[in-house]
Amino acid sequence: MTPKEILFSTLRRESPERTPWVPLAGVHAGALTRCPADELLTDGGRLLTALLAVNRLYRPDGQAVTYDLSLEAECLGCDLRWHPSRPPSVFSHPLADNMIVPCECTLPGPEDGRLPLVLDVTARLKSAVGGFTALIGVVCGPFTLASHLRGGALFSDLYDDPRYVRDLLDYCAKSALRLGGLLGGAGADVILVADPLAVQLSPDCFSAFLTPPLRMVFDGLRAAGLFSALSVCGDVIGLLPAMCRTGPDAVFVGEDVDLPLAKSVADRYNVCIGGNLPLNSLLLRGTPQAVLDHTAALLDAVPDRTGLILATGCDIPYGVPPENGAAPARAVRVGSRRQPASLKTRSSTHFPLL
């Protein structure tokens, strides 16, 4: 099986020959080619070069094209602050003083903002590596996009005007579905809906406000022939049943979640689960051997790996050493701690920066 066939098989809850590996390397891709994040996300040529470096060094079964949750917000009038080592941040909110729901004619389209760049790079990456690597298009989840547009007032709106929030979330879900369709048309195989701010909702609030719009997104992506996933960072074990009920093929969780417990929840809903290598304590500050050992132990902790995707639960930090980013690929190809693949027993691998 090719790497992408291994990921596809897992997403169908079959039993491929090994666990797939999905590093969510957004701006971190730029670190591999000495490209600052602000240049990476505005220069298609440099972005493609960096993504090819991720593919070559990290041997992923699936890889993200970008992990930039400001793309849609920028198209819709939010101002951004740019940074050399992390994604741009949103600092203005066009609906902060205007409690309106934009009409559908304003939804981001293929010619808006930086979307032409992302769609072009997706198509070019598909041509270069899409025969053996699954491409993952990342879109901003409805609650996070609504917060970009409305600002902090969105949280009081949940209580003061729930109908407005539902209408705004419906609009933001349509944005996610439109961009997901565009990315799929350009060559993405999987659409990951990343909604990190949803971790601040209670399970009941999540179900009341986010289940209908997210279900619309995932039903639409499935109808378009695309795999889908939902990612919410933080301690989401209490939210996990509600996340699964939105209907994605997979949910992605971070290091705050006990992976075997989370998998047992996802299994009840016939949903795959991706996770959950620690980002800062392990990938950023650990050693390659520590990453390898942790990954092997994580795999050993899940006896039934049906539906399991080894992944970073969120965007890899810019400064992660490439040797650390490459170690999980070695671990999944060995399979468990009972068959160690110590770095000391292999010839050293060099990771030249381009």
Question: How are the secondary structure elements laid out?
Answer:
Blueprint lengths: L2 H9 L9 E2 L5 H4 L5 H4 L3 H15 L3 E3 L6 H5 L4 E2 L7 E2 L24 H15 L4 E7 L1 H9 L2 H8 L1 H25 L3 E5 L8 H7 L1 H13 L3 E5 L8 H6 L4 E3 L6 H10 L3 E6 L1 H6 L3 H13 L7 E5 L9 H13 L20
Parallel strand pairs: 1-10, 2-5, 5-6, 6-7, 7-8, 8-9, 9-10
Antiparallel strand pairs: 3-4
Helix pairs in contact: 4-6, 7-9, 8-9, 9-11, 15-16
Report what the structure shows.
With about 350 residues, the protein is of the alpha/beta class. The protein has one domain: TIM Barrel (Alpha-Beta Barrel). It is built from 16 helices and ten strands. It has an eight-stranded parallel beta sheet with strand order 1-10-9-8-7-6-5-2, sandwiched between helices. Strands 3-4 form a two-stranded antiparallel sheet. Strand 8 (about 250), helix 13 and strand 9 (about 270-275) form a beta-alpha-beta unit. Helix 4 (about 45-60) runs parallel beside helix 6 (about 115-130) and helix 15 (about 290-300) packs parallel to helix 16. The longest helix is centred in the middle third of the chain and has 25 residues, at about 160-185. The two termini are about 30 Å apart. Residues about 335-350 have low confidence and may be disordered.
